[in-house]
Amino acid sequence: MHNSEQDLGQAVVKAFMNFKQAELQNFKVAGLKRSETRFLFMLHQGLQHSNHEQGMKVSDATAILRVSKPSVTQQINALEEKKLIIRSQDPVDKRAAYIQLTGQGKEVVAEIISTFHKNFEDMTLFLGKDEMEKLISLLDRLTEYLNKKAENKGV
After folding, report:
1. Among residues 76, 79, 72, 71, which one has the least CA distance to residue 29?
2. pLDDT tens-digit readout, 71-117
3. By the 8 A CB rule, do 42 and 65 touch?
4. Contact 54, 12 (CB under 8 A)
5. 3-state secondary structure of 66
6. 27-153 classified as CATH 3.20.20.210
């Protein structure tokens, strides 16, 4: 199938790039950038585990997303402008800011989750349950390998 390790490596990169392109086309939510969709989903997940009445700390969002504070601030500003999230300041610690979903934001997250579920159901129908479970297992193993490799490099 592939003549050398270089050919195999190129095939893997091509497969990932093709998948990413197809994913971007099929996991769109109208009016949102991919990064905004990801941010809203992360916020929804984080709020389910937060016990703070003001929502999720902005610093926690930065850590979860593994992006810089300016990037998170940019996302927050864009989503606030779209009236999908609100930001508030901690009354005790003025340096701490919190974010949470608005009613409209909760509706958009429900749409995001519905779109994701529908796409994954379609993929499972296409691949079959066994192949889908095999894909998940392989991706989990590959992610574990890459994370361990990054830790060893101090990345």
Report:
1. 79
2. 999 999 999 999 999 999 988 888 889 999 999 999 999 999 998 89
3. yes
4. no
5. coil
6. no
